[in-house]
Automatic annotation (TrEMBL):
This is Glucose-6-phosphate 1-dehydrogenase. It is an enzyme of class 1 (oxidoreductase). The keyword Transferase does not apply. Belongs to the glucose-6-phosphate dehydrogenase family. The gene is zwf. Catalyzes the oxidation of glucose 6-phosphate to 6-phosphogluconolactone. It comes from the Bacteria. It catalyses: D-glucose 6-phosphate + NADP(+) = 6-phospho-D-glucono-1,5-lactone + NADPH + H(+). Its EC number is 1.1.1.49. One of its GO terms (molecular function) is glucose-6-phosphate dehydrogenase activity. NADP(+) binds at residues 15-22, 49, 88-89, 151.
Length: 492
């Protein structure tokens, strides 16, 4: 890892006219600039087919950071670092022109040959771009070259493997930065610190003391204007294969021997490898899928998924998934990791609940139903913080125990913090720190796990829609936990 604090680089964004660039990348680069993390020595080249000019790109950049800039002068100066080139990634002639522009800007901005190629485009282009960058010697320069790849990384294991082979023809594994923006979220990064910097937790972090772990990422938004992508993907590929399994890996992994990229990744890989594969005839016992119907959320009447766009009218794509993941290793044997994620649910919330086992003889709660197990809750979004649920004496009532909460609130400047996550990850990439990016082996184990679930589902037509917009998902997701004597904890 390079410890240089003000990295210098040319950032080339493939797909600069798109949604991701506008909503996440431009604001993130601005915040890095504003906070002094990148100095004057950077330039951004935006590429896409439409015939924009530098001025048009700069205007768009300005619009995307409208609420954030500190002064007009500062904004104009920042925007002047942006350059646009009309570019078709499938046209080899374009790459020579890009090379010329990069060389010119490297001279102007003294970026020492450091280059980031950020692929903010549909994944079918990733392989072509990577190979062309090699063919036209764009990656063989005096400084470092890094390739940032957006999700989805493939559609299943074979397509991900194919894509990876194409990319690896041009770039080494340590030059590839596969983005999972959940790994840039402050409280997701906090999981390791909470676990490995606190004796009270790490000693209890196993199947002797933990009853179950629940990971929820619920969204109140629906499919919005991403129907074409989403209907081809569904919640399992969109959220479970990456974000949800990454959080499970961080919760389940063994302590790394050092806080280095390789050691942390190696422990995450081992955790993912230990996930028990699901046999196709057992999928229904462990996984539940759903699709949202119409319903009411915050007083607003909402359409069901199939009414959101014409092409969704007969869709059987799942917008909700809940599952029970078992990890077959010494630490976790027998302990379920429950996950759930879905669109158009009652609220936007990402949280982790670690439910501890009860003590052998509870003197204060003899009736099973009125026990309050100790919980460790990690709130990731929109609230950021940690809460420990304990039992303490009820004041003035003899020996009556009541649940209390010890809370730490980390809510800072960012409540809905996706751009902030991108900002951190982009900076990590500039520093050469790949810890919070996914290694190919993590991607491969995750696909291999979910492929069997998806294949089983493909064979059976679902009974959709099966949950109301504004609810917490289908009732089968509650039954999934009830079978084991558990229930979802409702945490806000
Ligand atoms: N948007 C989001 O919130 C998220 C997006 N992602 C991923 O990021 C990537 C980009 O997504 P998003 O920005 O939403 O997609 P968009 O469809 O909004 O943008 C696609 C971009 O690709 C350009 N493009 C398409 N074909 C070509 C071509 N042949 N040559 C050059 N440029 C081309 C388009 O510009 P033009 O038409 O001018 O050529 C446009 O700039 C995808 O992989 C997506 O899955 C991941 C997480 C979240
Ligand atoms: O990757 C994705 O994530 C978002 C949810 O991200 P969050 O940071 O707001 O939790 C999801 O809406 C989208 O469908 C998916 O592609």
């Amino acid at each position: 890892m390079n410890n240089q604090q003000n990295p210098k680089a040319i950032i080339v964004i493939f797909g600069a006219t798109g949604d991701l660039a506008k909503r996440k990348l431009f604001p993130s680069i601005y915040r890095l600039y504003q906070s002094g993390k990148i100095s004057e020595d950077f330039a951004v080249i935006g590429l896409a087919r439409r015939s924009w000019s530098n001025e048009i790109l700069r205007d768009k950049v300005g619009e995307s950071i409208e609420d954030a800039f500190s002064s007009r002068e500062d904004l104009e100066h920042f925007k002047s670092h942006f350059y646009y080139q009309s570019f078709d990634v499938t046209d080899s002639g374009s790459y020579q022109g890009l090379n010329d522009l990069i060389l010119e800007l490297e001279g102007m901005y003294h970026t020492e040959g450091n280059r980031i190629f950020y692929l903010a485009m549909a994944p079918e282009f990733f392989g072509t771009i990577a190979i062309n960058l090699k063919t036209y010697c764009l990656k063989d320069n005096a400084g470092w070259a890094r390739l940032v790849i957006e999700k989805p990384f493939g559609h299943d294991l074979p397509s991900a493997q194919l894509l990876n082979n194409q990319i690896r023809e041009a770039f080494d594994e340590d030059q590839i930065y596969r983005i999972d923006h959940y790994l840039g979220k402050e409280m997701v990064q906090n999981i390791e610190v909470i676990r490995f910097a606190n004796g009270i937790f790490e000693h209890l972090w196993n199947n002797r003391f933990i009853s179950n772990i629940q990971v929820t990422s619920s969204e109140s938004l629906g499919v919005e204007d991403r129907a074409r992508y989403y209907d081809h993907s569904g919640a399992t590929r969109d959220m479970v294969q990456n974000h949800m399994l990454q959080m499970v890996a961080l919760l389940a992994m063994e302590p790394p021997i050092k806080l280095t990229t390789d050691e942390i990744r190696s422990e995450k890989i081992k955790a993912l490898r230990a996930i028990r594969p699901i046999k196709s005839d057992e999928v229904d016992e462990s996984f539940v899928r759903g699709q949202y119907d119409d319903g009411v959320l915050n007083g607003e009447q909402l359409h069901g998924y199939r009414e959101e766009a014409e092409e969704l009218a007969n869709s059987n794509t799942e917008t909700y998934v809940a599952g029970k993941i078992m990890i077959d290793n010494f630490r976790w044997a027998g302990i379920p990791f429950y996950i759930r994620t879905g669109k158009r649910m009652a609220e936007k919330s990402i949280n982790i609940v670690v439910e501890f086992k009860d003590i052998p003889m509870n003197l204060y709660h003899q009736d099973e139903s009125d026990r309050n197990p100790n919980l460790l809750v990690i709130n990731i979004q929109p609230n950021e913080g940690i809460t420990l649920y304990l039992n303490a004496k009820k004041t003035g009532h003899g020996s009556v125990a009541q649940p209390i909460q010890l809370s730490y609130n980390n809510n800072g400047a960012h409540s809905i913090n996706t751009p902030e996550a991108y900002e951190k990850l982009l900076y990590d990439c500039m520093l050469g720190d790949a810890t919070n990016f996914t290694h190919w082996d993590e991607v491969a184990y995750s696909w291999s796990y979910i492929d069997s679930i998806l294949q089983a589902w493909e064979k059976k037509e679902p009974d959709f829609p099966n949950y109301a917009s504004g609810s917490m998902g289908p009732k089968e997701a509650d039954e999934l936990l009830e079978k084991n004597g558990h229930h979802w904890w409702s945490i806000t």
